[in-house]
Amino acid sequence: MSRIILRNCPHRVLQVSLRRNANVRGFAAAAATSFDWEDPLLAKTLLTEEEVAVGETAERYCQERLLPRVLQAYRDEDYDSKILREMGELGLLGATIQGYGCAGVSTVAGGLITRAVERVDSGYRSGMSVQSSLVMGGIHEFGSAELKERLLPGMARGEILGAFGLTEPNHGSDPGSMETVARRHPQKTGVYLLSGAKTWITNSPIADVLLVWAKLEETGKIRGFVVERKDCPAGTLETPAIKNKNGLRASITGMIQLDNCPVREENMFPEVEGLKGPFSCLNSARYGIALGTMGALEDCIARARTYALERKQFKGNPLAKYQLVQKKLADAVTDATYGTLAAIQVGRLKDEGKATPEMISLIKRQNCDKALHNARVLQEIFGGNAVSDEYGIGRHVANLYVTQTYEGQSDIHSLILGRAITGVQAFA
Amino acid sequence: MSRIILRNCPHRVLQVSLRRNANVRGFAAAAATSFDWEDPLLAKTLLTEEEVAVGETAERYCQERLLPRVLQAYRDEDYDSKILREMGELGLLGATIQGYGCAGVSTVAGGLITRAVERVDSGYRSGMSVQSSLVMGGIHEFGSAELKERLLPGMARGEILGAFGLTEPNHGSDPGSMETVARRHPQKTGVYLLSGAKTWITNSPIADVLLVWAKLEETGKIRGFVVERKDCPAGTLETPAIKNKNGLRASITGMIQLDNCPVREENMFPEVEGLKGPFSCLNSARYGIALGTMGALEDCIARARTYALERKQFKGNPLAKYQLVQKKLADAVTDATYGTLAAIQVGRLKDEGKATPEMISLIKRQNCDKALHNARVLQEIFGGNAVSDEYGIGRHVANLYVTQTYEGQSDIHSLILGRAITGVQAFA
Amino acid sequence: MSRIILRNCPHRVLQVSLRRNANVRGFAAAAATSFDWEDPLLAKTLLTEEEVAVGETAERYCQERLLPRVLQAYRDEDYDSKILREMGELGLLGATIQGYGCAGVSTVAGGLITRAVERVDSGYRSGMSVQSSLVMGGIHEFGSAELKERLLPGMARGEILGAFGLTEPNHGSDPGSMETVARRHPQKTGVYLLSGAKTWITNSPIADVLLVWAKLEETGKIRGFVVERKDCPAGTLETPAIKNKNGLRASITGMIQLDNCPVREENMFPEVEGLKGPFSCLNSARYGIALGTMGALEDCIARARTYALERKQFKGNPLAKYQLVQKKLADAVTDATYGTLAAIQVGRLKDEGKATPEMISLIKRQNCDKALHNARVLQEIFGGNAVSDEYGIGRHVANLYVTQTYEGQSDIHSLILGRAITGVQAFA
Amino acid sequence: MSRIILRNCPHRVLQVSLRRNANVRGFAAAAATSFDWEDPLLAKTLLTEEEVAVGETAERYCQERLLPRVLQAYRDEDYDSKILREMGELGLLGATIQGYGCAGVSTVAGGLITRAVERVDSGYRSGMSVQSSLVMGGIHEFGSAELKERLLPGMARGEILGAFGLTEPNHGSDPGSMETVARRHPQKTGVYLLSGAKTWITNSPIADVLLVWAKLEETGKIRGFVVERKDCPAGTLETPAIKNKNGLRASITGMIQLDNCPVREENMFPEVEGLKGPFSCLNSARYGIALGTMGALEDCIARARTYALERKQFKGNPLAKYQLVQKKLADAVTDATYGTLAAIQVGRLKDEGKATPEMISLIKRQNCDKALHNARVLQEIFGGNAVSDEYGIGRHVANLYVTQTYEGQSDIHSLILGRAITGVQAFA
């Protein structure tokens, strides 16, 4: 297993060594002038050398270390929290952040990491997205200098684990109606008491720090609080796991139950108020999903293609010879490459300060929708065999349903786009 | 729990008592002249009184006895083999067979039973379909008089359990290429030795009798053999379970491994040769699937509708108020009622001797496709909550994928229909 | 050309003679036990002998007399008003009405007539629907005895032509907001003056009587007025044609412009108020559309199938051998037969008084949507050749778009259904 | 009307002047950091200054000069051959060719021209594509130096009009089976006699030079011949127009009928043999279609958005407020921007010599399919009003069907892609 650490890696060396490793997925292998079904429109020509290297480091780790774990983890609904530490060692966490021990790579490079992870499993990517984009990203953007210095380096190493508490049992698509509240402590100055419940919180059962969004009683405005588990008196913070999930079973999900949980004022984000804070975090995470789901789709394509070539029916013809199979593959390959190009473009715009939230909505919605749709269609190629979890395709299908619904359900993003296009809002 | 036995039930009494039972699903409750979302085109007006009563008996059993079991069974990938005995007590097994202790009801009534069972779970319906249509149906149609007398009454009571062995590891959509072979015993007259492997066999691990299709060595023709487990010497028959399925987890699935397994000549179907035998069995089972999947879809509709009415977002509006949600419901309701009407029509034609296998292909394909498609679309209404198995919708989605692939994968039925429409075959 | 008149036809004789006529479309020809791609689920077994005969009369007329005219009529955007007279001679107009010289056949028989006409062209069917369902139906249901006696017999013969004025330039899906108004004549007792404009009115330029819906000034309630052109002073009624249509070019469409047009009180429907009146008329017309569009779809199937069998590409294989072509045909055939069965069921319910408007919405929406969708998919089989109007498929595609939008645009029907399913309205 | 000629235009000046012109479509107007529904992912940031200027020149010409003509031309099925001369004056013809009086712009710039033209009408774009890509491109790539010098400058000015003869009545998707033949003249050295028929040939009735592909009798190999109408003896070349088309009515289409038509050897492409020649020409044209259809789709979006904002129904709400309408717009906008990004990427690869024909197949197929699909869905927003040709949407829908079928029908491209993905061919 590679010990190369991203945040100070000599990329050129890495790249060469990777190309020699025949066992690793041929990420950039095909000659530029033949058709490469893994990268049909040569999206890789849009990447910098550094980005290619980051992608290859991530792909190698994921294929070598994550892939062998995922089948059993998904069966057992188990998440190995060492994974985040391993990712931290490679510099994959919070990779787009400058400083604080983070790699400081481009938005696109960050997306290539999520793509590599989600090529294995959307649950693994979810665990990483929460750590990187939602929590580290949130603290980096909105936290005080002290908070950043204190938490980000450990989070970057995967030693401090984070969770992001926005969604509530009765408020999914509509977080503005949240009921979790922060009151000033009646006695202790500079302390808030948080009460309320959050649900569907990735990593909550294992998190050391929980970025919780709550309404400040005195203003009625939403504020962000970094709850540190080690500081919570018994009975004020519970994070029970949610079990028996239909998807994302290789990630861990839970609730956050706060009962007058004390949080120091220094752990409240000093300036940001309202939905701007959580939406900004979501924006980064959604970007990672947009490119990440393309990894899951590409893995479905690769698996379906292999199956179609190996499975023979009717006079020994491979399934790949059937027109109905070829069309499914052609459609999926097209959507994967279109989605990748769009995500790269938005990544560039993000780094140039030109990306709007609606652009992220657009690629998050489309890429999740298309990844899910095509994964389902490709699953048909496996016929009844897809029911066996060994083929992996059913796992991707189940996972991708979840990606379509979280961080903005698809229809909600349609209405966000509709509003941006027409100037008229249609939510209610 | 009702002890009323179908094969001699006083239907009128049953019907009245059901209507008084407010806890039971309102199967036939709505006044005829208002719009009933559970039966929008009043398919029930096409049913006889007896059929309505059969349907209600089945619905009551399924809602009262199966529904409470399914969540845990699906989680644990466990099948309670008492279920078939309970169904047997109520006369639900082999219900369309005349005599041998069977109820002798119409094809449509048989379909109403599968619909009731599949409203709870497609896996439960699969377990029953194998017993009723594939094995009992096969023995009834092709078995010797002795075999029928000996096996059918016990099977009708659910005391003898059956499995149907057609699909092989390398031959799914193309059973004509099967490799399982039956050779004459070199010493014992009137005995065949079966060798080969079958896979994805519902009920095989718990089956007492296994209807196995094999090529007779001397003719190269496919023949049907009823393998009785109690008569198989050790090591000649193994039926290991297949675990870790993505769907139909509440049914039990396994392989059939035959190693010179001796079967008496009396247990070979005397006349039927080639694929005509298994295809005839499949034809009946497929009919049951066509109406059965409408039950699963109807349950998805009912669950999604309830969720949409109860879940409030954005200013307290129920999801049901959103146009995008209403369209999903309207589409699903339409497909459910169209599929039901078509299945009833084919059931009538079947009883009149006018149904062709292509008609069954047509309704099996369409109803499975539409049940799956709409279940997935309705699942979106639940957003992230669908990931919790408590809502049931994810289970239906996963199950319905399997129904689309078994007993003729959807694309294969498309080509069967294409051939019937054009006279040209396009399989290879 | 057949001179047999429907309203007193000896059906048995007709039926026999038709079967001998090899040139007529094999409406009921296939033996019951083989797969008939023109009627895959044997919907014809649900018809009475009389209904079969009515259908055959209509089919014969349409194939013999309408089909030869339609290509040129569509090119020239011309409607031959003799068509309604010809239909009248055969008893095809207002056929479901009892008395007044009408045939008094079942709702399903009426639908078989629309299906026969729309098999040729949706525009021809539109012209007939307006006469039969919207105007004759409206007068029959709501008109005074005098009005019925005076107008219906001539309309049944196609000597008096009708148009139905509901839609206004600014009020399509929302007729309740109509602006056309009826004021009492300031001097003449028993006379109303109508003012306003109606648009997209089939047959308006050639109509003798125009059923116009207007708001009665004194009550603000919508009322129905039968405007007789012959009684309108110059300048009070104009009905200019709308030209350059993209579809339904073989029907004639226009506006109705009323400027203080005097109508006698006897020509106002005496009792019905509000939208109940026009919606009731639309209900009947929509039923005809639901079965009618299945005729257009069936014609697309027949044309595409013929083309696919005759057109050879790549080594002389007919297109029909391609899997992608077979799937298109299989899908279309399935939707056609499902739509037909559903429409027959609703027709039966209508005659039994059990049909609700939502049922009609359901089949109108679904059958128009599916006819249009499949027509478009089948069009692909023709490749570039579909651009030639000689193949007819492009005409059906263009027509079917219109059927999807008129008498309730598809999305509006989705919301009508959504409201019926959930009890919550989502129109605005 | 701008007289600025592309091939020597001072782009910077042009650009500034355009921005002052408020009546011209705001091609590059939006500030970079707000969401621009006309360019949601800021594809324009990928363009060079020159490309932006070329696009603006083309857009201005098309909006100012073509748009006012198209409604009547489409009604009358008439093509004004002055259009090509006007385009020639602006340097829009053969714009990607270096030398010979051509502008020598990038592939993407060439695509921006087709997009501008197709924003008005696909037929106008077809007429230009034939001239630019198929004929000028073919002569430029394969013709002798003499032929290039003699023909290209006049073609670039639009004074010599071209047509491209590949498709035959019986050979559409399979041109390798063509029947047109070139025989050596029995007497005259250096002369070939061409015989055969080509159909669906854009511009053939008005063409001065016809690039005809024929099988050379002596080798059986396909060769390209530039037939010059002025040199053809009477009766050897006929180019009758095909009328009554369902789409592309603003372009002129015809046949090419050759009866021992003499062509000098110098007019035969000297080296290229087989399908490589025509496929190379098609490759360039397909690229133009891929970006061109995005223009048509963008125009549909703009028209639908305007309609949705202006049309009020139900309590005065604009249609734009309806969720079902917003989703249609969001989907279309997404597909337009994805398709544009993909086409730009392939354009860049083409100029770098990295584009394969499969890449062109991929974007041609996807962009045509999506343009057509979304145009149809957007059409629904117009309800019945779309039937009036004044709204333009029906024209785009009809045109886009044709683009989906020509230069490789969509399914054929699916199989080309399927072959490239799997290595297995499935054409027959």
In brief:
4 copies of one chain form a homotetramer. Chain A has 428 residues and is α+β, with helices and mostly antiparallel strands.
Which terms would index this structure?
428 residues; Butyryl-Coa Dehydrogenase, subunit A, domain 1; Butyryl-CoA Dehydrogenase, subunit A, domain 3; seven-stranded mixed sheet; two-stranded antiparallel sheet; 11 helices; disordered N terminus
What does this structure look like?
Chain A is α+β, with helices and mostly antiparallel strands and 428 residues long. The first copy, chain A, is 49% helix and 13% strand. In chain A, the strands form three sheets. In chain A, strands 3, 4, 5, 6, 7, 8 and 9 form a seven-stranded mixed β-sheet that branches. In chain A, a hairpin with a 5-residue loop joins strand 6 and strand 7. In chain A, helix 2 runs parallel beside helix 4, helix 4 runs antiparallel to helix 5 and helix 8 packs antiparallel against helix 9. Chains in contact: A-B, A-C, A-D, B-C, B-D, C-D. Chains A and D meet through helix 7, helix 8, helix 9 and helix 11 of A and helix 7, helix 8, helix 9 and helix 11 of D.
Low-confidence stretches of chain A: 1-5, 7-32
Tell me the number of strands of chain A. 11
Query: Do you know the CATH topology of the largest domain in chain A?
Result: Butyryl-Coa Dehydrogenase, subunit A, domain 1
Specify which chain pair forms the largest interface.
Answer: A-D, 60 and 60 residues
CATH class descriptor of the largest domain in chain A: Mainly Alpha
Radius of gyration of chain A: 22 Å
